[in-house]
């Protein structure tokens, strides 16, 4: 894999984080601080670059959590990535928050198949399913926003002997309503949120595949945007 220098940022959930990949090494910072992302993010980035004795212009690309997650958080991360990239004339790498969450679950559990879920409120979760493959996390089902019980559709389509690890805030938010989990599904005991250190590792694979895009083309992924508009009077 081509070695790259990539900065990653994420503000899509309650966690605010940044990470820097340089010559194969990752340094990172994170803080659980809802509603403070706009204040915390740029100082985090500046500190990482200072620690690595680098400038933005020495990077190859900027990765960012493109969602799903909180509407405000997704917008903050996308706009910040675009601003940094425009200023340094760099491309960007949009990374799924669910994919990053799945990589974190794999790091913690060693279980190759991950069910990543973020609490989407309104009795729904953002849900993705991934399989670990040579360091990368490959999607085995399309990301979706859905009622909590819909996760069963994913494992029912997989071999019965497959082990799964359930990771993320979506599980603990609705675990009481889901009943007993199958024996091949292990749920992480505490809430986990996507981290930039996982995003930057995934971004290295995306960079090698040539998936970097111009900053102007950076697009957030909300999954629920059409639902939100329909809740406004006169919007269909």
From TrEMBL:
* Key words, A-Z: Acyltransferase, Hydrolase, Transferase
Write down the Pfam families for this protein, in alphabetical order: TsaD
Q: Which superkingdom?
A: Bacteria
- Entry keyword Transmembrane: no
GO molecular function (one): hydrolase activity
Domain Gcp-like, chain residue ranges per copy: 32-155
CDD domains referenced in this protein's UniProt entry, alphabetically: ASKHA_NBD_TsaB
Answer yes or no on keyword Acyltransferase: yes
Gene3D superfamilies for this protein: 3.30.420.40
| Record-linked PANTHER family | TRNA N6-ADENOSINE THREONYLCARBAMOYLTRANSFERASE, TRNA THREONYLCARBAMOYLADENOSINE BIOSYNTHESIS PROTEIN TSAB
Say which family it is in.
Answer: Belongs to the KAE1 / TsaD family. TsaB subfamily.
Q: Spell out the protein name for this chain.
A: tRNA threonylcarbamoyladenosine biosynthesis protein TsaB
Per the UniProt entry, what species is this protein from, by scientific name? Answer: Neiella holothuriorum
Gene name for this UniProt entry: tsaB
């Amino acid at each position: 894999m081509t070695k790259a220098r990539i900065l990653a940022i994420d503000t899509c959930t309650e966690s605010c984080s940044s990470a820097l990949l340089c010559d194969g090494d990752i340094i990172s910072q994170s803080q659980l601080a809802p509603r403070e992302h706009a204040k915390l993010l740029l100082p985090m980035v500046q500190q990482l670059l200072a620690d690595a004795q680098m400038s933005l212009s020495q990077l190859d690309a900027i990765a960012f959590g493109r969602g799903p997650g909180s509407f405000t958080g997704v917008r903050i991360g996308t706009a910040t990535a675009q601003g940094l990239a425009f200023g340094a004339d760099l491309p960007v790498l949009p990374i799924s928050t669910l994919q990053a969450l799945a990589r974190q679950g794999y790091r913690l559990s060693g279980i190759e198949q991950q069910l990543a879920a973020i609490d989407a409120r309104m009795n729904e979760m953002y849900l993705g399913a991934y399989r670990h493959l040579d360091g990368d996390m490959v999607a085995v089902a399309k990301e979706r926003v859905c009622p909590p019980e819909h996760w069963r559709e994913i494992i029912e389509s997989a071999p019965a002997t497959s082990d799964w690890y359930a990771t993320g805030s979506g599980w603990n938010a609705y675990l009481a309503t889901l009943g007993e989990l199958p024996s091949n599904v292990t749920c992480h005991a505490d809430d986990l949120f996507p981290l930039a250190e996982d995003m930057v590792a995934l971004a290295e694979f995306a960079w090698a595949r040539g998936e970097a895009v111009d900053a102007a083309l950076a697009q957030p992924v909300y999954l629920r945007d059409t639902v939100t508009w329909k809740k406004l009077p006169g919007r269909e």
